[in-house]
């Protein structure tokens, strides 16, 4: 790290709280502190001077909230606030050996998927701050008080890509070891180190006593210097006063020095705390932080340390799957999410994500799929592509530390893939093939593995991030190759000490009883050192083999996971469903029995003598599915069934639809579709459960729903309506404050040359208000929406 | 199992809920309670009155309107309170929405009930902090003529973003969704209940339960 006034073997003393000091100097509550950079620079300078006198070697400039979002009502620009803030701090620091940091705090608005601020917009807000800070002469950047790893990543990328300054990132954890968004210490450390932070740490939230164990944990998960900037204890809930004095604070924090050499104070601290800290620090010695990091990928909430067998799910891949291909071509991300959800629930540890298919723009699709998956699946992802641009686009928006599948021994592949892997701190799978193809002998594959490892190291990718795939070949075609693959796996694992990946399923192509061969090969391979099998986790016997192997290898301590899997093998029941067997598809739907309904539909199609030959799928929709939904709908109307039952039936219908879609995709027929409907929650509104309920029901009446999401501007709805020539638009609003946005959307839609029919609904909408704003229909619930859709579209 | 009843009421089922729905609700609620705890922060503000308006001292905003005047009539101080299920609930809910919309609808109602329960717990704590004094009913922006914009002021005064990770959107919605801001007045004599019942509720014009002729019995 190129950082003035500091040697890495010394403790580095930061400053203490700014806000607390400004309040003591009479800053009025509710004032945005950054505006004082212009209105009262002397007040800010005096705080800086007090900290310098107390011994601070780094001043955090008064720029914490100086982003365009928070300043939007102030009439001041980011540039003027930041350049004034940096100038004040630099003025104060002249004559002292102290550096000035551009301070970047959270934006004050939640990022997607929790909020509606996009990653790209967040990046832009941070970029503006970083550029202003660098141009104003900041010596370093501190990104602090982050609770969302995604937001921290946006800020860090913005700083790294637009300045050459060193950058510290600190986040706020509560004493359970999680941030408000559920991020773990390990996920934070590994992700931010991978992205190129110069130091990582913790600030705010708790006092040094409660922070201490987390600081130790952090130091065990990073090679970087660790920063500690705790509060002066905890605030009294009535008075807001913090409960830890300077002496206790300094003594407790000094005990953390061996693993956190960069220290200062956050809320409630003052120059007295820093002075006391300096005196205590003078008596302490530091040790170098020499940690050995295990192989690791993560999302914020799901750290995955590869210290045993970790299953990579293979199902998000269009190869040989017509239904998946259709979903990709139709932009049906809900289908892809469903494939992911099933694998997570089946016990996968990591999901491989491959969306490459002719006709699909992979560079645009991969990041969209990554965002969609991360909205509802917690598992780490392995982005699977040979297109470096697609990989970069996907890695950029990925929240956490991902894996990349793959690089190979070709120089061109190495030069194109590894820089992207390095930049985003991903792990990478190296395929043991090169321009001459797949070598026949294990020794040659090992040589390629070594070449990939050395190349990765030369790019600055640490050894634990290099995973090797020794390649599975089909045993029925090249029988001698299975043994060579296993030999190479053993060497790479034992001698090179790397993690090993294998796509296991390939082994059994062309043979009867494929499952037996695949499972046996999987077991052999794990015994030889395979740690990352790529398999279909929905195949129970494959997961059974992994579960058993983990017992025999000693990984599953006290056989807990094994016992949990097999001792408690109760059948999975449906939500709110009445158990029992159902003779007809209709019965199964009404009872909400998803798998039963799907099974019956499959059987009906298979044995379709009773069905019209030209379109058996449509027949099932009209004779079974719709009448069933109507019957449940009637019961709901009459107060004999309730919302969850209505939805359960809808989902069972969805399962039937899925069977019909598969059948149609196989025959190459057109989809069962009765018209396309746009649904959106209006601008400003983030409550979308009502809209999602309507979506579930409409889809199961056979309509295709184009779901524009929540907080949707009128223009977006208008454009989508024109683009797809939509005849029915449904709008939802929950808050009184967002009704004007609904009204505006209706107004814009009705101005179109051929306006669509508009349904409105949501908690605050009434039939009168619907009429007043010019909507065609008011729907009081999802059932009513379906009836209106039928009237309009059929 | 009061909470289960409350959830069923939110779902419009109440006493007539079938056994399967009740069981499902119990399972989801207890699973949720293991993963998500309501958290709250509050602060006590002495009140200052000027020209009929009520000012929490040290906070940069005024409590306006008839409802506040009535509620805080006897009070010389008031607690500002924020309670939230936080991002943990939102993640659990999104994960469920992707799996099973029926369960997600139940989970959403569980979240609402759990947030209310968190507010109740906070209120008991406030009460314990003021021995010999009397608290008013808890009331929130949106109640009576209290503007929703007060949500932003309360969050600002409680440093909500830093202390609980709660943000206020431009349309005055709290995010994460399962969050509540509230005011509880402190007085020297017993306070009568004023807030309960449809007549006082800001949803009275649009409430789905009222539209169907029922009420939420709060």
Radius of gyration of chain A: 30 Å
Integer average pLDDT of chain B: 88
Beta fraction of chain A: 5-15%
* Count of DSSP-assigned helices of chain A: 30
CATH class of the largest domain in chain A: Alpha Beta
| CATH architecture field of the largest domain in chain A | Alpha-Beta Barrel
| Radius of gyration from the alpha-carbon trace of chain B, in angstroms | 18 Å
Helix content of chain B: 40-55%
Tell me the total number of β-strands of chain A.
23
Biggest beta sheet summary of chain A? 8 strands, parallel
CATH topology of the largest domain in chain A: TIM Barrel
Oligomeric status of the shown chains? heterodimer
Content-based structural category of chain A = alpha/beta
Estimate percent helicity of chain A. 40-55%
- What is the tally of beta strands of chain B? 7
CATH architecture of the domain at 37-85 and 114-211 in chain B: 3-Layer(aba) Sandwich
Write the layout of secondary structure elements.
The complex is a heterodimer of chains A (about 800) and B (about 220).
Chain A: E1 12-13, H1 19-24, H2 36-39, H3 41-54, E2 58-60, H4 68-71, H5 78-93, E3 99-104, H6 119-135, E4 140-146, H7 149-162, E5 167-171, H8 185-194, E6 199-203, H9 208-219, E7 226-229, H10 246-254, E8 262-263, H11 271-281, E9 296-298, E10 303-305, E11 312-316, H12 322-329, H13 333-346, E12 350-353, H14 362-374, E13 381-384, H15 388-397, E14 403-408, H16 411-424, E15 427-431, H17 442-458, E16 466-469, H18 481-494, E17 499-503, H19 514-528, E18 532-535, H20 540-552, H21 560-566, H22 585-590, H23 594-606, H24 616-637, H25 643-667, E19 676-681, H26 689-699, E20 704-707, H27 714-723, E21 728-732, H28 739-750, E22 757-761, H29 767-773, E23 777-778, H30 782-793
Parallel strand pairs in A: 1-8, 2-3, 3-4, 4-5, 5-6, 6-7, 7-8, 11-12, 11-18, 12-13, 13-14, 14-15, 15-16, 16-17, 17-18, 19-20, 19-21, 21-22, 22-23
Antiparallel strand pairs in A: 9-10
Helix pairs in contact in A: 3-5, 3-11, 5-6, 6-7, 10-11, 13-14, 14-15, 15-16, 17-18, 18-19, 19-20, 23-25, 24-25, 25-26, 26-30, 27-28
Chain B: H1 2-10, H2 19-35, E1 39-50, E2 53-56, H3 66-71, E3 75-84, H4 86-99, H5 101-129, E4 134-135, H6 150-157, H7 160-164, E5 167-168, E6 174-175, E7 179-187, H8 208-211
Antiparallel strand pairs in B: 1-2, 1-3, 3-7, 4-7, 5-6
Helix pairs in contact in B: 1-2, 1-5, 2-5, 4-5
């Amino acid at each position: 790290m190129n950082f003035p006034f500091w040697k890495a073997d010394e403790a580095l003393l930061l400053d203490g709280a700014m806000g607390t000091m400004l309040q003591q100097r009479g800053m009025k509550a509710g004032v945005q502190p950054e505006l004082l950079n212009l209105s009262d620079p002397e007040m800010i300078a005096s705080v800086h001077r007090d900290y310098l006198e107390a011994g601070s070697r780094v001043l955090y400039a008064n720029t914490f909230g100086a982003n365009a979002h928070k300043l939007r009502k102030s009439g001041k620009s980011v540039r003027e606030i930041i350049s004034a803030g940096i100038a004040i701090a630099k003025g104060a620091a002249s004559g002292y050996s102290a550096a000035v940091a551009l301070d970047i705090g959270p934006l004050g608005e939640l990022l997607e998927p929790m909020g509606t601020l996009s990653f790209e917009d967040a990046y832009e807000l941070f970029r503006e701050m970083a550029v202003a800070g660098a141009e104003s002469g900041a010596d370093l950047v501190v990104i602090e008080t982050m609770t969302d790893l995604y937001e921290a990543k946006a800020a860090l990328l913005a700083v790294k890509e637009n300045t050459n300054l060193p950058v510290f990132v600190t986040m706020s954890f509560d004493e359970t070891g999680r941030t408000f968004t559920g991020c773990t210490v390990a996920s934070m450390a590994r992700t931010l180190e991978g992205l190129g932070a110069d130091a990582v740490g913790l600030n705010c939230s708790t006092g040094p006593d409660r922070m201490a164990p987390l600081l130790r944990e952090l130091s065990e998960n990073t090679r970087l210097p660790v920063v500690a900037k705790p509060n002066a204890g905890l605030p009294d809930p009535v008075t807001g006063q913090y409960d830890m004095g300077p002496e206790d604070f300094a003594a407790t924090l000094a005990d953390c020095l061996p693993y956190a050499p960069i220290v200062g104070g956050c809320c409630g601290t003052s120059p007295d705390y820093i002075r006391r800290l300096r005196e205590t620090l003078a008596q302490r010695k530091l040790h170098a932080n020499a940690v050995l990091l295990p192989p690791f990928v993560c999302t914020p909430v799901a750290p995955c340390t590869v210290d045993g067998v970790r299953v990579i799910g293979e199902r998000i891949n269009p190869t040989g799957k017509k239904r998946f291909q259709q979903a990709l071509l139709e932009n049906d991300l809900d289908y892809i999410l469903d494939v992911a959800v099933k694998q997570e629930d089946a016990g996968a540890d990591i999901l491989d994500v491959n969306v490459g298919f002719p006709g699909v723009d992979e560079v645009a699709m991969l990041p969209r799929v990554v965002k969609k998956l991360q909205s509802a699946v917690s598992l780490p992802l392995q982005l699977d592509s040979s297109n470096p641009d697609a990989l970069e686009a996907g890695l950029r928006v990925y929240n956490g530390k991902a894996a990349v599948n793959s690089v190979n021994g070709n120089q061109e592949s190495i030069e194109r893939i590894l820089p992207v892997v390095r930049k985003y701190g991903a792990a990478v799978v190296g395929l043991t093939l090169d321009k001459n193809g797949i070598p026949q002998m294990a020794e040659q594959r090992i040589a390629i593995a070594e070449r990939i490892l050395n190349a990765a190291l030369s790019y600055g990718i640490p050894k634990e991030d290099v995973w090797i795939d020794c390649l599975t070949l089909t045993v029925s075609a090249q029988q001698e190759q299975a043994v060579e693959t296993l030999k190479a796996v053993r060497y790479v694992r034992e001698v090179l000490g790397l993690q090993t990946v294998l796509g296991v399923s390939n082994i059994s192509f062309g043979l009867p009883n494929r499952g037996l061969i695949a499972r046996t090969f999987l077991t052999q391979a794990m015994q030889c050192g395979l740690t990352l099998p790529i398999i279909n986790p929905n195949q129970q016997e494959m997961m059974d083999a992994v579960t058993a192997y983990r017992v025999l290898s000693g990984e599953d301590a006290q056989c807990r996971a094994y016992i949990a899997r097999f001792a408690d093998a109760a059948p999975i029941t449906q939500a709110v469903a009445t158990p029992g067997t159902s003779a007809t598809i209709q019965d199964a739907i009404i009872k909400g029995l998803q798998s039963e309904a799907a099974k019956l539909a499959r059987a009906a199609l298979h044995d379709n003598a009773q069905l019209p030959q030209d379109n058996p799928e449509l027949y099932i929709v009209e004779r079974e599915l719709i009448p069933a939904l109507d019957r449940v709908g009637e019961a709901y109307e009459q107060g004999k069934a309730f919302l969850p039952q209505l939805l359960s039936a809808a989902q069972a219908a969805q399962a039937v639809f899925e069977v019909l879609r598969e059948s149609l995709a196989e025959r190459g027929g057109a989809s069962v579709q009765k018209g396309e409907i746009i649904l959106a929650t209006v601008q400003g509104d983030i409550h979308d459960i009502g809209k999602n309920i309507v979506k579930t029901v409409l889809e199961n009446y056979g309509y295709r729903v184009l779901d524009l999401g929540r907080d949707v501007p009128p223009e977006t709805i208008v454009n989508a309506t024109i683009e797809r020539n939509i005849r029915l638009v449904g709008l939802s609003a929950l808050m009184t404050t967002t009704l004007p946005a609904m009204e505006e959307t209706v107004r814009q839609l009705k101005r179109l040359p051929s306006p669509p029919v508009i349904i409105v609904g949501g908690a605050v909408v009434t039939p009168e208000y619907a009429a007043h704003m010019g909507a065609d229909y008011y729907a009081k619930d999802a059932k009513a929406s379906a009836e209106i859709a039928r009237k309009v579209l059929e | 199992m009061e909470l289960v009843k409350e959830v069923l009421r939110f779902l419009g089922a109440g006493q007539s809920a079938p056994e399967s729905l009740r069981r499902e609700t119990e399972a989801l609620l207890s699973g949720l309670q293991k993963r998500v705890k309501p958290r709250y922060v509050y602060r006590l503000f002495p009140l200052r009155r000027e020209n009929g308006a009520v000012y929490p001292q040290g906070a940069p905003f005024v409590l306006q309107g008839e409802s506040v005047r009535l509620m805080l009539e006897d009070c010389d101080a008031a607690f500002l309170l924020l309670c939230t299920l936080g991002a943990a609930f939102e993640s659990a809910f999104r994960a469920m929405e992707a799996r099973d919309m029926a369960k997600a609808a139940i989970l959403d109602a569980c979240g609402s009930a759990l947030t209310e329960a968190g507010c109740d717990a906070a209120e008991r704590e406030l009460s314990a902090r003021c021995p010999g004094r009397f608290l008013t009913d808890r009331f929130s922006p949106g109640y009576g003529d209290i503007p929703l914009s007060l949500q932003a002021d309360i969050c600002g005064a409680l440093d909500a973003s830093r202390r609980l990770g709660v943000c206020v959107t431009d349309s005055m919605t709290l995010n994460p969704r399962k969050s509540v801001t509230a005011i509880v007045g402190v007085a020297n004599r017993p306070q009568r209940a004023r807030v309960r019942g449809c007549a006082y509720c800001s949803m009275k014009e649009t409430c789905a339960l009222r539209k169907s002729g029922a009420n939420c019995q709060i």
